[in-house]
Amino acid sequence: MASPLPVQTLSSILILLAILAPGAADFNISSLSDLLSPALTESLLVALPPCHLTGGNATLMVRRANDSTVVKSSFVVPPCRGRRELVSVVDSGSGFTVTRLSAYQVTNLVPGTKYYLSYRVQKGTSTESSRETPMSTLPRRSMESIELGMARTGGMVVITVLLSVAMFLLIVGLIITLALGVRK
């Protein structure tokens, strides 16, 4: 007669493996909360699904806090080029740095509002979902509260160029006038 212990142990192991399996249809997503904050009052940047889901059909679900309405966006998960990070340095030279942003941008959001975002990715016959992640858009700031410091505007550059050209023409005119005055 067989002991019931191995059957119970086997069923417990199978349940634990189903819960703790590495590809257990749950993955984390994150945001760029503090990196590009001035530009993100009406949009959010969300990390793309993991590399093993490349080519899968992703659906991003966005739900406003305290609201049951879900807005869905669909796209195909792009291929990974090496390690996938939200912002990665592509090239760095003397005085400049080129970066690549590997994120999905959710647009047309309300400023200063909390949202919950999650992915569902279908690749072949399997479907994986992310956990729901809370993210917030930044509140709008009045234009007067933004300090520009010594930033160069397009108008300042144009005025500088025009004044430089005018000074050059004035000096050339002075030289021509002096040269013609000496001949007489």
UniProtKB/TrEMBL annotation:
<keyword id="KW-1133">Transmembrane helix</keyword>
<protein>
    <submittedName>
        <fullName>Uroplakin-2 isoform X1</fullName>
    </submittedName>
</protein>
<feature type="transmembrane region" description="Helical">
    <location>
        <begin position="157"/>
        <end position="182"/>
    </location>
</feature>
<keyword id="KW-0732">Signal</keyword>
<feature type="signal peptide">
    <location>
        <begin position="1"/>
        <end position="25"/>
    </location>
</feature>
<dbReference type="InterPro" id="IPR009952">
    <property type="entry name" value="Uroplakin-2"/>
</dbReference>
<keyword id="KW-0812">Transmembrane</keyword>
<dbReference type="GO" id="GO:0030855">
    <property type="term" value="P:epithelial cell differentiation"/>
</dbReference>
<dbReference type="GO" id="GO:0016324">
    <property type="term" value="C:apical plasma membrane"/>
</dbReference>
<keyword id="KW-0472">Membrane</keyword>
<dbReference type="Pfam" id="PF07353">
    <property type="entry name" value="Uroplakin_II"/>
</dbReference>
